[in-house]
Amino acid sequence: MLRGTLLILALVATAAAFDDFDPFIDIPFKAIKTSAERIEAHGYPAESHFVETPDGYVLNVFRIPHSPSLNNGAQQRPVVLIMHGLFSCSDCFLLNGPEDGLAYNYADAGYDVWLGNARGNLYSRNNTRRDVKHPYFWKFSWHEIGSIDLPAMIDYILEVTGEKALHYVGHSQGCTSFFVMGSYRPEYNDKIKTSHMLAPPVFMGNTTEGLIVATAPVFGTPGLGTTLLENQVFLPQNQFIQRLLDTTCSNQPLLLSYCKTLALLWGGPEIGNLNATLLPQIAETHPAGISSNQAIHFIQSYASNEFRLYDWGSRKNLEYYGVAEPPPYDLGQITSELYLYYGLADGSANKQDISRLPELLPNLALLHEVPDPTWGHLDFIFATEVKKVINDMVIDYSKAYDEGINKN
Ligand SMILES: *[C@@H]1O[C@H](CO)[C@@H](O)[C@H](O)[C@H]1NC(C)=O
Ligand SMILES: *[C@@H]1O[C@H](CO)[C@@H](O)[C@H](O)[C@H]1NC(C)=O
Ligand SMILES: *[C@@H]1O[C@H](CO)[C@@H](O)[C@H](O)[C@H]1NC(C)=O
């Protein structure tokens, strides 16, 4: 794990040593396929939408309106919004293709599928009021993703589709941000039919994720380390790193372990059940760029053993929150129907921490431990068995909900 960290640092340092390196000029839309292009390449219809948040961020949201196997395309369908994790983007639910990809599986089951992108990732790096180079462009963590981006995307999707509520599936940070929304913007719980949390990092005191544990002494509490790194783009998807990954991961079987290390850094210590043929594609689309504050906020969760707002240090906390300690999120506000899924080999969202959740959640419908003891953080998206172990189950629960409504 530490090896992975050093590797990334070396990579970024190498990139920075190049004259033309500018971490901010880096939206390689031409170098890679967009989510819409990936969807269309498999014969599914795709749409690309732009959602502007109240604070000006422009989020690129993709849609598979229906499966090509379902002929009446214009028919009203139940809606699902699928949200990616840290360092990731909408591509992650598409990479394993129509057989195993959650987005395709939902479309084939009769759903209108939307794929979100959080502010700052390679699809959502635009703001109508602030240039991407503005020092405050990157002043956000998953608090803003959960309290601003998710509500904006949900409102937009419900308006376009004419639906009153939707299903939600999140992976990793896609869950953390959902927990933020449900507790901080509780009025949104009524817009959720069911929500499926795949590997949710909420409480993190027991995390064994190496990057978090190793950096906690520096970034776990406000201080010089945090101040230096705060409010910046972290691991941007830029053409230099892109090219390096493309060449190293696509053509060199000998370097597969190097590429695995990159995937590990993003996904946690268990390579476990990962479909290795996907690694080049994973490396091509990740890391998709985050604000350093997102990572710091997770490290704070580990250090404090609490799920609470971003810690700016007591002086700024007083200014922002009116109290010296960041207030905790009130999980008792999350009234939407919650389904939790976790793996025993997952260092970031592990059983001990997840076991604190049930008594705090008022409407928990399912707490599911994946039976395979080797199931890790990334397996929820990329395992060879993901359809059978996760996707079918999530979709069955969604359908049961919709069929229940139709009966009443
Ligand atoms: C791995 O993913 C590729 C690409 O989607 C797919 O063709 C292959 O069948 C998968 N391998 C397994 C063992 O599922
Ligand atoms: C940012 O979004 C605005 C509003 O949608 C758009 O007019 C502008 O072209 C976008 N800029 C970039 C660089 O994509
Ligand atoms: C670890 O998990 C246990 C059980 O849920 C919890 O009581 C404890 O606070 C957690 N954190 C640490 C640092 O032990």
Summarize this structure briefly.
This protein has 408 residues and is α/β, with parallel strands linked by helices. The chain has helices spanning 2-17, 35-41, 97-100, 102-108, 142-161, 173-184, 210-219, 224-229, 239-251, 256-267, 279-285, 292-304, 314-321, 351-354, 379-382, 386-407, and strands at residues 47-52, 58-64, 79-83, 112-115, 166-171, 192-198, 233-234, 290-291, 337-342, 364-369.
List the helices and strands and how they pair.
Layout (H helix, E strand, L loop, with lengths): L1 H16 L17 H7 L5 E6 L5 E7 L14 E5 L13 H4 L1 H7 L3 E4 L26 H20 L4 E6 L1 H12 L7 E7 L11 H10 L4 H6 L3 E2 L4 H13 L4 H12 L11 H7 L4 E2 H13 L9 H8 L15 E6 L8 H4 L9 E6 L9 H4 L3 H22 L1
Parallel strand pairs: 3-4, 3-5, 5-6, 6-9, 9-10
Antiparallel strand pairs: 1-2, 2-4, 7-8
Helix pairs in contact: 1-10, 5-6, 7-12, 9-11, 10-11
This protein binds 2-acetamido-2-deoxy-beta-D-glucopyranose (3 copies).
GO molecular function: hydrolase activity, acting on ester bonds
Family: Belongs to the AB hydrolase superfamily. Lipase family.
Pfam family, one: Abhydro_lipase
CATH architecture: 3-Layer(aba) Sandwich
CATH domain class: Alpha Beta
Number of structural domains: 1
CATH H-level superfamily? Alpha/Beta hydrolase fold, catalytic domain
Strand order of the largest sheet: 1-2-4-3-5-6-9-10
Q: Could you explain how this protein is built, in words?
A:
The chain has 408 residues and is α/β, with parallel strands linked by helices. It has one domain: Rossmann fold (3-Layer(aba) Sandwich). It is 40% helix and 12% strand. The protein is built from 16 helices and ten strands. It has helices at residues 2-17, 35-41, 97-100, 102-108, 142-161, 173-184, 210-219, 224-229, 239-251, 256-267, 279-285, 292-304, 314-321, 351-354, 379-382, 386-407; strands spanning 47-52, 58-64, 79-83, 112-115, 166-171, 192-198, 233-234, 290-291, 337-342, 364-369. The strands form two sheets. The chain has an eight-stranded mixed sheet, sandwiched between helices. Strands 7-8 form a two-stranded antiparallel sheet. Helix 9 runs antiparallel to helix 11 (279-285) and helix 10 crosses helix 11. The chain starts with a helix and ends with a helix. Mean pLDDT is 82; it is low at 1-31, 237-260 and 263-270. The structure holds 2-acetamido-2-deoxy-beta-D-glucopyranose (3 copies). One 2-acetamido-2-deoxy-beta-D-glucopyranose (NAG) is lined by residues 96-97, 275, 277-278, 384.
